[in-house]
Amino acid sequence: MKRNLLLPIILTILISCANSTEPPAPYGPLPTKAQLEWHKMEYFSLVCYGLNTFTEEEWAYGDVDPGLFNPSDLNTDQWAKVTSESGMKGLILVAKHHDGFCLWPSKYTDYSVKATTWKNGQGDVLGDLAQSCKKYGLKLGVYLSPWDRNHAEYGRPEYVQYFYNQLEELLTNYGDIFEFWIDGANGGTGYYGGAREKRSIDRTKYYGYETIFSIVKKHHPNALIFSDVGPGCRWVGNESGIGGETNWNTISTNGKYPGTPDPKYHKKLQQGEEGGSIWIPAEVNTTLLWPKAWYHKTGHQSRSLQNLMELYYTSVGRGSPLNLGIAIAPTGKISEQDTKTLLSFRQQLLREFETNLIKNSKLTTSNKRGGPRFKATNCKDEDSQTYWATEDGVNEASIEIDLGKKTEFNRLRLEEFIALGQRINSFSLEAETNGKNQLICEGTTVGYKRLLKFEPVIAQKLRLKLKTNAPCVTLSEIGLYNAPKLVLEPVPNVDTKGNLEFISGGNVVYYATTKDPEKKDYNLYTTTVSMPKGGTIHFYAIDKSTGFTTEIRKEQISMARNNWRVLSKHANADCIDNRPKTFTEIHAEKNSQPELVIDLKNLTAFNAFAYLPRQDGKKKGTVYEYELQISQDNKQWETISSGTLSNIENNPNRRIINLNDTHKAKYIKLKAISGIRNTNTIAVAELELLNI
After folding, report:
1. Would you say 269 and 236 are in contact if contact means Cβ atoms under 8 Å apart?
2. Which residues face 13 on adjacent strands?
3. Pairing of strands 179-181, 139-144
4. pTM over 0.85
5. Of 554, 596, 553, whose CA–CA distance to 575 is shortest?
6. Do 685 and 637 meet the contact criterion of CB atoms below 8 Å apart?
7. How many CA atoms lie within 13 A of 393 on its CB side?
8. Across the chain, which distance is largest between two alpha carbons, in Å?
């Protein structure tokens, strides 16, 4: 009788054990094999070169003479060699930007490299790059702008077929493509075969996005399509290099389309959506040049090493690949400065994650799925195909980490086993100090990878806590590192009187104000530097303890503005206060355009000006088309500069506009001919005059 009673219990235990050795069931949408490989790439570049390089425009009008494209030493092998040695895994070439100029000899237009003297019109930049990528083990991607400001039929059905034809060319002649880039800049003013007019389209229907996507998939089924809506990977909603601290790889697009002008959706793009219907991971993009510029700009410089490391933590460190745009120099090569910066960035990353302190630790879990396949030690084997998992029904779990001795560390790395879906929605790391657990860091999502940095901690025993809404927890990798100190770049800070100070972080700072300073021209910074007339300042820092020297940086300093007075009605001085977070907003008078008028008080000479749009994340009042006018009496006005501030919606950074000559004025007027939201308003965080 007792035997019969025990039999069901034994069977239940055996079934339970068998079930616990099974892998966790997939949770939510899953990545494709191609998406998993794309996640592993982590770091690649959108390469920008073309007529824009020679005109120094971001969005050219479409009427530039193709003869201007004449590189003296175009070398795609150099592009591939430098980027490969820098740790990048792929290059995406902007084969055609909004100006319509093609970097391959398209048979459907003469507005291409065919019409240039480069290689006697027989060149093919994309073809050369495809060969260079193979040579250096890089993957190749392409960007083809739907908007074409050169083509006469843009806005009509004939252009759509032209776009499809060019897409077929790109996808059938250059080998495997890992990513196809398509952005949301659509319609507006342009050359359009000589019409020189504004053309608008129905963004939802005109291009036939489903047809575009089907052409890509027909020829390259494993290529990821990048856009606001994927379907392979999504724009992160900004061009600042910042992914969401909460970053779900899943999202529901709900009928959205590339270029959708919806701020709420842009925020959603950054964070993703827990429970989203499709796996469309975010790609974080920004530029190597600073101030941000996709194409070559005289006077722009590479980002500092400190800034690049911050970008790494806000992109790869939040589970998204970093697409770092490289602007090829007019010669046809990556510049010497950019090359040096990219290689330094690579070396710093290697130093940052050189030794995983978890390797010889003891791991003890609060729960474990049955069998050896899901053991805790999988989290320290540096194998992304293995993982630790809890039993079903366990939504909170912890891992005790014993490092064996007191150890100093300041970085945490976590990786999920995303092949079965993204699960973790919160985590925390605690260290045992004086018999109590002290919180070190915490976060929300993990996804493909999560990196956190914090002040150095010395401890032997740690506890990692994980939570999920899924049936169970999975984790593939844990890393602890003691990254070396990175010497901070000095930050120049100038007041409205032109008095400049450096925020140095305790380092020794040297500076020079001459145009092209030599080493002997640099002065030791000890007190405020007076620059009431503005100018260019060069500077670097030295760490007193290690002797490490930062790269030489330069900054354009505006002239003193303490005596200026804003004259526009209902405006305030927030646009001339040297505080970027404040701004003035001016609404246009009836039947006029919004404008900002400033009394300079004295006759002032300048050869450049700078405009900074509002920095609160909103777009209202941001200037797109502008005019800058000067006057001696506030009655008679002369226009000295006009143009467009290309891509300012996605790059709302300080725009410095060089003037053809030095001008003198007592009054200046910035007029908004049009804004990116067409609100008949002008918003200005800072307006500056410079001598550069």
Report:
1. yes
2. none
3. parallel
4. yes
5. 596
6. no
7. 3
8. 112
